[in-house]
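Page 47, continued from p. 46.
Same chain as before, 223 aa.
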Amino acid sequence: MTQRTGVNADAAIDEAFSFNSADQPYWQTSPCPRWCVTPHYDSDPLDDRSHAGLNTGVALTLADPAKFGPHGTEPFYRYRAPTLTGSLLQHLREIEPVVELLDERDEYNAKLTLDEAVTFAGSLLVLVAEGRNPTVGLPAPGGAAGHQKRSGHQEWCRDPHGAHDDGVCHAPELSIDAGRIGLTYNPQEGARVHFERESHNGMTPVEAEQLAFQLLAYARWAD
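Result:
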């Protein structure tokens, strides 16, 4: 069969589309998914009959160093920041892939469903948004939000208790040159995200990042 390696990602992915049934091992009954870059053989044991995608990783600069080197004795070790990697993995008998997170020091290993991975990724981005931009974040606990929640308002509502009689809650807005984005809630329509465009000049990359983070924050608040 044709081997797929991780050397050239584009070539490996394109090869999956031209997959010939004559190349597949006897146990494989359908072509590889587009993202699979691992070779399959007739000799693969049952536990190894999985599609695997390319690893994407990040160096963990705040973690303890990882040892690497060609020899097992201390003088020959070198040290570097350990890498946390993520990749798609789908066993022959699974209906959809999972996202596998691995620490190269074998201190962390987790498999997430696609839905779990989306939720986790969104939560991470919101945490980044709150850390980088003090204007993005939930109201402080114990403040006016607590009174609003008891009176039927949303936890994220910025309006003072009793300030509006129409029952509409408003979240803190984000204003950039291109416009304003906000979140409202009323019992009839539920939560709604609003964008008021004020410029046709587009957004800077920083503004686009702020907008994306704020959208994620609104989605989490309204969930």
